[in-house]
Design goal:
The protein is built from 30 helices and 7 strands. Among the domains are: 169 residues, Neurolysin, domain 3 (Orthogonal Bundle), CATH 1.10.1370; 64 residues, no CATH class; 161 residues, Neurolysin, domain 3 (Orthogonal Bundle), CATH 1.10.1370.10. The strands form 2 sheets. Strands 3-4-5-7-6 form a 5-stranded mixed sheet, sandwiched between helices. Strand 4 and strand 5 form a beta hairpin. The longest helix has 34 residues.
């Protein structure tokens, strides 16, 4: 939901400082030498294809908007060599800082670290695209080879004793007291990033810490590759006779997917959520629904070469050993120490507060579904592959609401215009598409917009959009940046990107998406606005606290249901008429419909994640552990985890969400509470005063302010869980 998996893993392991966007002044000669070498290689006719490919990856970005990635020129052929040279350059820059004979200061140590790593960070931008947006077997081979080398590079920096001594001297010295609050936070974050990642360990433990990180890098890469392999290898091809119940829009997408796989005349249901979900919602073929459901939820758990269970065992064991070296009882205690929750107990307390109401609602939902299923189809029980199908029937019966009818008003392009409208009202942003070819893209589906201030006309950045699913693209939706806002070497503009896996409409027709997908679209755009609104000076402060950074994006989902968006942008794809008032009212009446299912499948994943990281993993069998713990929780048999353990990429493809998947709900408490601030305001969701506070305190400061302090500055108090319960239509317990 946020950066490429590689970059996320590195950020979470304390490496942000090594990946920033400008070069250290004191180490400038090192970077300058590299740029000159790149120029020489480019001009040399005898240079090999690999050398030229490497030089393009190393080269400074050129063109408009302070330079943009050369997505149309770079080649994977030089990736390994470019990464190795980029790491060497960054290590040389770090050595200059670490071996400075002047007394350590904030400027000559912390700020110089912030300036380092420009070349390597540019390469990571390309690497992230090959990893997430256009993966190939060739790239995956490189990824497997380079993962341990990148981990070793990270370890060299984290275990540079001279560097850490300088960082410690700044953080614990007299100068610290004189720094601005954001500078103090930066120095503290950098210090903690080292201390929490092995810098304080002795020789043998430090060595073991690095060995563990090296192995984990390999395991995380293998895990994600296995999931992607199962998503690509398992495709269900249907005949025309097997399309019962499927809306025309779903049929057309399935036909296009089959054609793209050289299966003209057939219909492909791919092993991704965007394909699985509508099939399970509408297909009248119960046996096929079961097959699609089992294929999707068994990713990484098929007992073959792509099975992830053994990898999970080793990952959990190594994580537990690693935090033990630092003195922590378990991985979750280490992970949450610098999060808003602070302790696993606090996260568990929140989830346990919501769980009973969620599963109670599931019982109600299942009873409603079974009544219809018995009457219409004679079923004796609702199975997991029935849930979406009969939930849709209940939705129609209770609220006269047809999801497919709603979908006809959800055109991808019109929704994008709606997001631009919201950004204009709240952030004063204006978006203009760049159509002159001056900004290269990595795929023909990608489009780019320039973002400016509506009043001043000042350039803020670029927004890239890669909306459609395709082979080689990882599942889900996420946001990333190729360059973040800083001022340390002059103000830099933002290069932000949103990436989704929506099904592309047939040639010449608009792409229609579900209501849930529309919320996801707004959600990821919220991340982009968080990037674009940044007003911080230092690159590290563009990072975030994981159980807080989802808050801003979750909050933006609320504007999808505002009258201004509904009346002007939810337009029928055939008639061009806006969504009628009666359909709008049905949507609002059904706002909390199926909340039991959505909350329970999410919480099941979040709770299992936390439990996996609070127990000693010795001898743990992932499948058995998942099954036994869910039975103890009383998970209804009709529901499974949203992300089952063998394909839980948030947790096992890296460490960004490990012992942290609860963060979505922690952030949802903030979201629900902040939404009520808008609802209470005179101008509603477009109230100028509340919007100004939102941008000032919750978006522009990024991680320059402690999240709890930032939220209190916006709301005047801490958030309360009651708002979340009201939002989901769950009973609110008495405060007496």
């Amino acid at each position: 939901m946020n950066k490429s998996r590689l970059f996320t893993a590195m950020l979470m392991s304390g490496m942000l400082f090594a990946c920033n966007s400008e070069t250290s002044t004191s180490a400038a000669s090192v970077a300058t030498d590299t740029v000159e070498q790149v120029s020489t290689i480019n001009n040399a006719t005898e240079a090999t294809a690999e050398e030229k490919a490497k030089s393009l990856l190393l080269a400074a970005w050129t063109g408009p908007f302070q330079g943009v990635p050369a997505f149309d020129q770079v080649s994977i052929a030089g990736l390994k060599a470019a990464l190795e040279e980029g790491m060497a350059l960054n290590l040389a820059e770090i050595d200059v800082i670490a071996n400075n004979t002047d007394a350590p200061t904030f400027e000559n140590t912390i700020v110089e670290m912030e300036r380092s790593g420009s070349v390597l960070r540019r390469i990571y931008s390309y690497y992230g695209i090959w990893s997430a947006n256009r993966s190939t077997p060739e790239f995956r081979d490189i990824q497997r080879e380079m993962a341990p080398k990148l981990s070793a590079f990270n370890t060299k920096i984290n275990q540079n004793e001279a560097l850490f001594q300088r960082i410690s001297a700044v953080r614990n010295g007299e100068e610290f007291k004189t720094l601005r609050s954001d500078q103090q936070r930066l120095a503290t974050l950098v210090y903690d990033g080292f201390a929490r990642n092995g810098a304080t360990l002795n020789g043998e433990d430090k060595k073991r810490y690095g060995e563990i990180n090296n192995r984990l890098a390999q395991l995380h890469t293998k895990f994600s590759s296995n999931v992607l392999a199962d998503e690509e290898n398992y495709v269900l091809y249907l005949t025309k006779e097997q399309l019962g119940g499927l809306p025309e829009s779903v049929v057309q997408v399935a036909a296009s997917a089959a054609t793209a796989r050289d299966k003209d005349g057939q219909y492909a249901i791919t092993n991704t959520r965007s394909s699985m979900d509508p099939f399970l919602t509408y297909s009248t073929e119960r046996e096929l629904r079961q097959k699609v459901w089992e294929t999707y939820y068994n990713r990484g758990d098929n007992g073959d070469e792509f099975d992830n269970n053994e990898l999970i065992k080793e990952i959990l064991t190594l994580r537990h050993e690693r935090v033990g070296l630092l003195g922590y009882d378990n991985y979750a205690s280490w992970r949450l120490e610098d999060r808003m929750a602070k302790k696993p107990e606090n996260a568990i307390k929140l989830m346990e507060a919501v769980w009973p109401a969620a599963i109670a609602r599931v019982d109600e939902e299942v009873a409603d579904m079974l009544a219809i299923g018995q009457k219409e189809d004679g079923i004796k029980a609702v199975k997991p592959w029935d849930y979406r199908y009969y939930a849709e029937k209940v939705r129609k019966a209770k609220y006269d609401l047809d999801s497919n009818e709603v979908k006809e008003y959800l055109q991808l392009n019109k929704l994008r215009e709606a997001m631009f409208y919201v950004a204009g009202r709240l952030f004063n942003f204006s978006f203009a598409e760049v159509t002159d070819g001056s900004v290269p893209v990595f795929h023909e589906d990608v489009r780019v917009w320039e973002v400016t201030d509506k009043t001043s006309g000042d350039h803020i950045g670029l927004w890239y959009l890669d909306p459609f699913a395709r082979q080689g693209k990882r599942s889900g939706a996420w946001a990333t940046t190729y360059r973040s806002h800083t001022t340390i070497n002059g103000k830099t503009n933002v290069l932000s990107s949103n990436n989704s896996n929506f099904s592309k409409g047939p040639e010449g027709q608009p792409s229609l998406i579900s209501w849930d997908d529309a919320e996801t679209y707004f959600h990821e755009f919220g991340h982009a606005l968080h990037f674009l609104a940044s007003n911080v000076d230092y690159p590290t402060l563009n990072g975030g606290v994981r159980d807080y950074t989802e808050f801003q994006s979750q909050l933006l989902e609320r504007w999808l249901t505002t009258d201004e968006v509904i009346d002007n942008y939810l337009i029928h794809y055939k008639t061009g008429k806006p969504m009628p008032a009666d359909l709008v009212q049905k949507i609002k009446n059904a706002a909390t419909f199926n909340e039991g299912f959505k909350t329970t499948e999410y919480l099941a994943s979040a709770i299992i994640d936390m439990k996996l990281h609070t127990v000693n993993p010795k001898g743990l069998d992932p499948d058995a552990f998942e099954r036994d713990e869910l039975n103890k929780l009383g998970l209804p048999s009709q529901i499974v985890m949203r992300h089952r353990t063998p394909h839980f990429g948030h947790v096992f493809s890296g460490e960004g969400y490990s012992a942290a998947y609860y963060g979505y709900m922690w952030a949802e408490v903030l979201t629900s509470d902040a939404s009520e601030a808008f609802e209470e305001a005179e101008g509603g969701y477009y109230d100028k005063n509340v919007a100004a506070k939102l941008v000032k305190h919750l978006f522009s400061v990024r991680n320059a302010v402690d999240p709890a302090e930032a939220y209190r500055a916006f709301r005047g108090r801490d958030a309360v869980v009651d708002a979340l319960m009201r939002d989901r239509g769950f009973p609110v317990k008495s405060q007496e």
